[in-house]
């Protein structure tokens, strides 16, 4: 009897233990770990690996361009052939950190996908710091050129006393850059010499970029190729009236030139854009040349070189304060056909104090623009872009009325 009771107690105890084990196992939220007891088969390893796409997603993102060394820059991603083209910048060593901002803007909005070269020109030798820093963020090749002294100095036919007197008078009249010698050298150089520098002789197309400029929208195509495909020669984004006190005799000099060289004036020209009275006077409209994309072969052509030589001999770069913008603009308006000039409405651009911001909200959203419509200079009273639309018989963009003064 005692033995049976002891046997029954064992059975009850075993049942209780079994119930407790089942309860603990079923209530646990932590899965049981399964440790391998042997080396897995090869096919099991392959099956357990993530897909190629998943592996790519797990890889660290490509490091930012700045300040990695040039060798680590991302390759061009845009498809298609590249044009024989380069960016060109006239800068001083002390402009370094302002031109860096401009380069970064160009690279981010366009050139990181195309890797076009960049030519830097200076009337002094570039410093090692300038070369290192600019090379580090340009995705194409960088080239550094010294401007020949004869291209950045007073020609021997200039009366120094007369030129000095003009500078003093302009200073008293508070004309911007009126007393600056270096500004006059710059305007003369950009008008007649930059395209003849040995570093640019290898190229057909140029895009001028200056310190302290910004590009506000993504540029999803190649403007160089567009210019070539559409047979364009010169382009702009901002136009305005020149300060008349800086060019009092420029137009009379132009008229003297065209009178003796009528063969250079295109039949289908844009005279109506630069003159309101069929060429009798100049209305001071010009393309703002701190941005321009153009054909270097045109600037190196005989009509343009003869034109510049006539202006240079007249002395207006030093006896007045002729700018390269009206010089380029007048030449383009007279010597090119209308359809050889292009307005890049879709390239949003700022050079203080003016901004070109494409009209139309949807375009600005699609191209990730950072400019505001109220900043757009195109339709303001001092702009010449509205007149350009009229002369070229172009339809103005929807909503332009809201951006007028």
Q: Give the topology string: H per helix, E per strand.
A: HHHEHEHEHHEEHEEHHEEHHHHEEEHH
Measured by DSSP, the beta-strand proportion falls in 5-15%
Number of helices: 16
User: What is the gyration radius calculated from CA atoms?
Assistant: 34 Å
Please outline the major beta sheet.
Answer: 5 strands, mixed
Low-confidence stretches: 16-71
Mean pLDDT: 86
DSSP summary, beta strand count: 12
Helix vs. strand class: alpha/beta
Task: Classify the helix fraction into a percent range.
Answer: 25-40%
Given the C-alpha coordinates, what overall shape results? Answer: globular
GO biological process, one term: protein N-linked glycosylation
Keywords: Glycosyltransferase, Signal, Transferase
Region (Disordered): 29-79
GO cellular component, one term: membrane
Give structural notes.
With 405 residues, this protein is of the alpha/beta class. The protein contains 16 helices and 12 strands. It has helices spanning 2-27, 42-48, 52-58, 96-109, 128-137, 160-172, 181-192, 223-229, 250-260, 271-274, 296-299, 302-314, 316-319, 324-335, 361-366, 385-391, and strands at residues 85-90, 117-122, 142-146, 205-208, 213-215, 234-236, 239-241, 285-287, 292-295, 341-343, 349-351, 354-356. One of its GO terms (cellular component) is Golgi apparatus. InterPro entries: Glyco_trans_15, Nucleotide-diphossugar_trans.
């Amino acid at each position: 009897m005692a033995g049976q009771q002891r046997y029954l107690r064992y059975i009850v105890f075993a049942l209780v233990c079994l119930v407790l084990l089942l309860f603990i196992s079923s209530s646990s939220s932590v899965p049981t770990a399964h440790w391998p007891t042997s080396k897995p088969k090869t096919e099991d390893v392959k099956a357990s690996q993530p897909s190629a796409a998943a592996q790519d997603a797990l890889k660290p993102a490509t490091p930012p361009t700045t300040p990695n060394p040039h060798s680590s820059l991302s390759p061009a991603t845009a498809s298609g052939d590249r044009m024989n083209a380069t960016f060109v910048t006239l800068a001083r060593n002390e402009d370094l950190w302002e031109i860096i901002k401009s380069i970064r803007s160009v690279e981010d909005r366009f050139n990181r996908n195309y890797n076009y070269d960049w030519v830097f020109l200076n009337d002094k030798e570039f410093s090692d710091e300038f070369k290192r820093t600019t090379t580090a963020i340009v995705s194409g090749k960088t080239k550094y050129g010294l401007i020949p002294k004869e291209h950045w100095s007073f020609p021997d036919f200039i009366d120094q006393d007369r030129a000095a007197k003009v500078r003093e008078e302009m200073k008293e009249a508070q004309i911007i850059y009126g007393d600056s010698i270096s500004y006059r050298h710059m305007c003369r150089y950009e008008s007649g010499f930059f395209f003849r520098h040995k570093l640019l002789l290898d190229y057909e197309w140029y895009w001028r970029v200056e310190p302290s400029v910004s590009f506000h929208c993504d540029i999803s195509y190649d403007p160089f190729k567009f210019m070539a495909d559409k047979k364009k020669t010169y382009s702009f984004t901002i136009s305005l009236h020149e300060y008349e006190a800086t060019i009092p005799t420029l137009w009379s000099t132009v008229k003297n030139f065209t009178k003796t060289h009528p063969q250079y004036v295109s039949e289908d020209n844009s005279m109506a854009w630069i003159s309101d009275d069929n060429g009798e006077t100049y209305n001071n409209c010009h393309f703002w040349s701190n941005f321009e994309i153009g054909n270097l072969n045109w600037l190196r052509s005989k009509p343009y070189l003869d034109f510049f030589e006539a202006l240079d001999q007249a002395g207006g770069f030093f006896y007045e304060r002729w700018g390269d913008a009206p010089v380029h603009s007048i030449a383009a308006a007279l010597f090119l056909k209308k359809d050889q000039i292009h307005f890049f409405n879709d390239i949003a651009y700022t050079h203080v104090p003016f901004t070109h911001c494409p009209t139309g909200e949807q375009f600005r959203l699609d191209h990730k623009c950072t400019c505001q419509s109220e900043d757009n200079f195109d339709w303001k009273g001092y702009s010449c872009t509205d007149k350009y639309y009229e002369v070229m018989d172009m339809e103005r963009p929807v909503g332009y009325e809201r951006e007028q003064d």
